[in-house]
């Protein structure tokens, strides 16, 4: 079965998954946040086949999540560096981490921990807030149809029969 592209979907979640939804891609991004920059280091850390890694890195560069840069040690190699767009995935990675901590580990089971580098204390749980500061859950939100999001004064899309 051919994979369907969501590149032009109205849903931001679908478009995001089209760009970075593969688990290898998210693990590569996670490793990039941990300071990994070289193909060989990604390959060693993830235990991923070279062909799959090459494809995922190429796709992340094409999506603008990573860019290629000359090696920081002055060698002839190139390194993969998070772009601003890639760095914008930090909260996504933290949200996945925290969800996993909450639902996939037994009480007392060892795991890595995300800490504030300045204080060495665990970071707070992510929370969604309204513009007035109230905490929000999924029950407090709703999706507004894309057609309803058009700027005021712009023509309405034609209704389908």
UniProtKB/TrEMBL annotation:
One of its GO terms (molecular function) is DNA binding. It comes from the Bacteria. InterPro entries: HTH_HxlR, WH-like_DNA-bd_sf, WH_DNA-bd_sf. The keyword Disulfide bond does not apply. Coiled coil: none annotated. Residues 11-108 form the HTH hxlR-type domain. The keyword Transcription regulation applies. Keywords: DNA-binding, Transcription, Transcription regulation. Signal peptide: none annotated. This is Transcriptional regulator. It comes from Shinella kummerowiae.
